[in-house]
Amino acid sequence: MTDAVTNPANATKGLPSLAGFSAPIVAGLGLILGYLGGNAAGLGLVGALVGAALGALLAYAAAGAFDAASPVKFASNRTAGRWTMIALYGLIGLALGLVPGLVAGVLIGAVMSWFAYWIVRGDYRKGVPPYATPGQVLWHNAFLFICGAIFFFLIAPIVTIIPLSFNAEAFFTFTPEMLALDPAGYSLRHYEDFFTNSDWQLAMRNSLIIAPFATIIAVTLGTVAAIGLSQSHVPGRQAIMAILISPMIVPLIISATGMFFFYSAMGNWLEANLGMSRELTGYIKVILAHAALGIPFVIITVTATLVGFDRSLTRASANLGAGPVRTFFKVQMPLILPGVISGGLFAFITSFDEVVVVLFVGAAAQKTLPWQMFIGLREQVSPTILAVATILVTFSIILLTTVELLRRRSERLRGMSPG
């Protein structure tokens, strides 16, 4: 063991004291996780003691205390060291709790091995200046922990429904077979019901009809409005902007009530004067209502993209003889396209996930997927809702990932560093 690791002063490498700081901290986390794991098996005290002991051993291993007698060089090869620690925890969990214990052990081992290296190697100081005081370092890492806890608080309920959607039983709970990771406790029956049930398929078809049309309208009107409002000579543009983005500020139930009265009158006029069927006017009303909800997202994203747009390019295009329309499609549109697509994706998600407005404006023929999920919760508790929710979560993750990639591309086009 090197003096840089054991010496509290750490004058050589600047690493924290092993015996006086790193080992007790890692042992403390091991004690907490060991107590939680042991408490599940009714051995809370034993689990806490074993967890603390393993935590201290991990700290010494990460510092290289056992490198001379071990084929794995923990200090120099962090990847191999972490995998060895994860395997150790996994074997302990397998011996104590079979397959569920193995999974829990692997997860705890991943956390503990990362934490051991993070503390022992001084990585917790990597986001702060070298001259930062211990209090500043503590606040920096506490702030990151608070952000992580908030993220977990927001994500945990969503993640929980994913394994539940594979439940072999018609229950909204984890069965003993699922907790034991028995294959018999898992099934795709709820996904099969979604793809074969006529009610769910009608709702999916309506959502796939309404959302794209609403997105097209929202993108067209929102982009035009954003370009117009970005001109400094437009009078009252701040007030106009506030009015246009009001649908995302006003409580949705109020917007839905106003849309009900407005679009009901419009639907009656279309039926009486243009001879449209009630079903067609129902689709038109819902599409227009969802477009109104999506326009603010398009305006905001396109306006943000236009902030870095070089106006001299449009003037140069005009000087070369191009008209406004040609200038827009050949010069301006390619540069603001990432913002337009991002706004369109947000508008699509808004329409695809919306349920309150469609309840007010639409009829049974326009029943969308969220509406059918609402019916499933209110009238019949069907686990198929969990399968649909998992599909929607996956779909939303794909769209949001696309939005992030487009944001980074937009920043690169504007010469900014993607953050």
From TrEMBL:
Presence of the UniProt keyword Transport in the record: yes
Single GO BP term: transmembrane transport
Membrane topology: Multi-pass membrane protein
Coiled-coil portions: none
Signal peptide region: none
Keyword Mitochondrion: no
Keywords assigned: Cell inner membrane, Cell membrane, Membrane, Transmembrane, Transmembrane helix, Transport
Top-rank taxon: Bacteria
InterPro entries documented for this protein: MetI-like, MetI-like_sf
Pfam families registered for this protein in UniProt: BPD_transp_1
Subcellular location: Cell inner membrane; Cell membrane
GO terms for cellular component: plasma membrane
ABC transmembrane type-1 domain boundaries: 204-403
Residue intervals passing through the bilayer: 15-36, 43-66, 86-117, 138-166, 208-229, 241-263, 283-309, 335-365, 385-406
Family: Belongs to the binding-protein-dependent transport system permease family.
Protein name (record): ABC transporter permease
Native species: Histidinibacterium lentulum
